[in-house]
Amino acid sequence: MTSTTDQRLLRTAIFPGSFDPLTNGHVDIIRRALRLFDRVVVAVLVNASKEPYFTAADRVAIVREVFAGEAAVDVETFDGLLVDYARRRQAIAIVRGLRAVSDFEYELQLAHMNRHLAPDVETVLLMTDVAHTFISSRLVKEVFSLGGEVAAFVPPAVERRLQQTREATGGGPRVVR
Ligand code: PNS
Predict the structure, then answer these.
(1) Is residue 124 in contact with ligand 1, taking CB distance under 6 Å?
(2) Residue 13 in contact with residue 42, Cβ under 8 Å?
(3) pLDDT digits over 1-43, tens only?
(4) Which residue out of 96, 132, 137, 145 is catalytically annotated?
(5) Is the CB of 52 under 6 A from ligand 1?
(6) How many angstroms separate the alpha carbon of residue 53 from the centre of ligand 1?
(7) pLDDT tens column, 125-165
(8) Residues pairing with 44 in the sheet
(9) Burial (CB count <10 Å: 0-12, 13-18, 19+), residue 79
């Protein structure tokens, strides 16, 4: 699709997050969103308050590698207000994942704030497969940095990069932030 009109006809959803790193839970949500939308833009937050484990460029490269050949998935970084970014991308929805009821309160708060800021952008909450309910980026980093096995929780592209960070630090544990 090349013309502006065609672009507007595409039903675009933004899937925003830190993705530090991308987990199998995130991958599952992206695949579910692809069934509902013509295009899913994975939006990697640059300006997080905490210093990330992976650079924004690495986080983007991981998503690109995992979804290589999937034309409906786009990935880029964003900064500033999510709703401003969503409007720039002409998105009709913001997609977020739910693992458990404990996620819900925070997601509801985000959704209401975003609705207040941009009533025309709908938030769509999608449940991960039950197999992913205990996976989080934070736990993946913690388990890996303490020498645990994380291959079951992340795509190979992430596992490989985690191993590379271990080799770069001489095999010692890397501090998780
Ligand atoms: O993966 P995360 O860290 O839970 O993602 C949180 C994210 C990126 C969705 C949220 O922090 C966000 O939207 N940040 C952008 C700034 C913004 O718009 N803040 C107001 C949201 S209500």
Answers:
(1) no
(2) no
(3) 445 556 668 999 999 999 999 999 999 999 999 999 999 999 9
(4) 137
(5) no
(6) 17
(7) 999 999 999 999 999 999 999 999 999 999 999 999 999 98
(8) 17, 77
(9) middle
> How far from 100 is each of 76, 107, 162, CA to CA, in Å?
27, 11, 26
3-state secondary structure of 94: strand
The yes-or-no answer on residue 141 being catalytic is no
CB 59 within 8 A of CB 44: yes
DSSP-based three-state secondary structure for 4: helix
Q: Ligand 1 centre from 3 Cα, in Å?
A: 31
Is 26 one of the catalytic residues? yes
- Name the nearest CA neighbour of 127 among 106, 103, 159, 148: 103
Tokens of 70: 């999937």
Q: Is the Cβ atom of 97 under 6 angstroms away from ligand 1?
A: no
